[in-house]
Design goal:
six-stranded mixed sheet
């Protein structure tokens, strides 16, 4: 890897003083949602700022350090350490000794000028080598381990003040910790812990994918394109069901985009599947509403779900039929896993379910369009671009909510597949828009 970023300084930030400081030896147990993903690489985000109105870099650093200290005072787990206990529990240790010396804070300089950094922020094709160097590394393979690190990187020279803020967070506490997990579910948490960390305090982290074989590209779906996609799926489902069926509701934004991604990936990647072979779509489902958690909940509450359909249904030549079938399968999976069942009712089978899905026939999606990354404000307004850097498999898609009802879609595939995916993905979006415009004129 070419070194593109030079570290200027490494310091640590302690939580600010508040009236409600954590007590000595305060610990928070991980929930089953947390330990199930204990071995995943950290979640990494990038926020680019390049509008030319930024304050001097020293002021940026000072502002970030101050706001980070205030944040850590409120969200104490982010300042702690992930720690192993003798009974196979893994906890967040927020005691004074664990919190010291604070969260790692890196100041760095990119080898290119502001124009080069703006290119990083605006190109559809990711410069993965550069992106990975704009976030700080977290050493998570052995406990105790930190859960958060922050890096702020400036461009070289006086080209107009471009800054990137990179955040790395341990996925086991990416959303914080649940305080609402009922008695008895600790057994599942320990079971999941033993799978990824049978020899605590060592954690067998999942290997990160080989980014040199990947291509990562970002696409922006406007609110109008999403509306046209939803309408096309609804009309296709209505035509498939016939006139005697009850009227259907349009698919949600999430279901519509999931169907678009699934059909595009499945058609572009050669799965060596016959029409009757089952294909899968892996997606995260938010359990907060179903578990009736407090609105201030700060913790992992994501269940991994699978939609299922045959290759003939989602990879056929009839694009409308494929979209409708994929959307129906995703909607059915959400209903079965989240609306008709206790989301934790099958927790004892999570490992079995995941191992039972043939990995060569699954398209994977992570994150949600409800993550409004462009509303993150460090004091300089909205970022010009926000990206999820972390990728947990060789093929994966992520969503981020964008401005004006748009959704940002980032797709990671093997290099030999990405052009085929893009052609299918964009052609389906274009077809939806053309059809929508034609019907609007009638």
């Amino acid at each position: 890897m070419n070194v593109r970023v030079r570290v200027l300084d490494v310091t640590h930030v302690m939580p600010g003083q508040t009236a409600n400081q954590q007590r000595d030896h305060a610990t928070i147990k991980l929930s089953p949602f947390d330990t199930f993903i204990l071995a995943l690489p950290p979640v990494q985000f990038l926020f680019f700022y390049d509008d030319g109105s930024l304050p001097p870099f020293a002021s940026v650093v000072s502002s970030l350090r101050t706001s980070l200290a205030a944040t850590l005072a409120v969200f104490a787990p982010l300042a702690g350490k992930l720690t192993a206990c003798p009974n196979d529990d893994v906890v967040i240790d927020c005691s004074p000794n664990a919190v010291r010396p604070g969260v790692k804070f890196v100041e760095a300089e990119y080898s290119g000028d502001s124009a080069d950094m703006r290119r990083l922020a605006r190109d559809a094709e990711h410069d993965t080598e550069a992106f990975l160097q704009l976030v700080s590394v977290l050493d998570l393979g052995r406990l105790p381990a930190p859960v958060l690190a922050v890096q702020v990187t400036r461009s070289t020279g006086e080209g107009g003040g471009t800054v990137v803020v990179g955040v790395s967070m341990h996925h086991a506490v990416a959303d914080g910790l649940s305080v609402c997990i009922s008695y008895g579910r600790e057994t599942w948490a320990r079971k999941f812990t033993r799978l990824s960390a049978p020899d605590l305090p060592t954690v067998n982290m999942l290997p990160e994918p080989d980014w040199t074989r990947q291509s990562r590209r970002t696409y922006l779906l406007s609110a109008g394109q999403i509306q046209a996609l939803r309408r096309r799926i609804l009309e296709s489902q209505a035509a498939k069901n016939g006139d005697n069926q009850p009227s259907l509701e349009p698919p949600t934004t999430y279901v519509a985009i999931a169907a678009l991604l699934w059909t595009s990936v499945a058609s572009a990647v050669d799965r060596h599947a016959d029409d009757a072979d089952e294909m899968y779509f892996q997606f995260p489902a938010d359990c907060r509403r179903r578990l009736r958690l407090d609105p201030g909940f700060f913790g992992n509450c994501i269940k991994v779900c699978y939609a299922r359909a045959t290759a003939g249904e989602i990879c056929g030549n009839d694009g409308d039929h494929a979209l409708a079938s994929a959307a129906a399968a995703v909607h059915r999976a959400i209903r079965e896993h989240m609306e008709e069942e206790d989301p934790l009712g099958d927790a004892d089978r999570w490992v079995e379910i995941n191992r039972g899905v043939p990995q060569e026939r699954v398209a994977k999606h992570w994150s949600s369009h409800r993550f409004m990354a462009y509303e993150v404000d460090f004091g300089w307004g909205q970022p010009s671009r926000a990206e999820v850097v972390s990728v947990f498999s060789q093929e994966m898609a992520t969503l981020v909510g964008a401005r004006d009802g748009a959704v940002q879609v980032t797709v990671t595939l093997d290099r030999e597949c990405i052009n085929g995916f893009e052609a299918i993905f964009l052609s389906q979006v274009s077809a939806c828009m053309i059809e929508h415009q034609m019907k609007s004129r009638m």
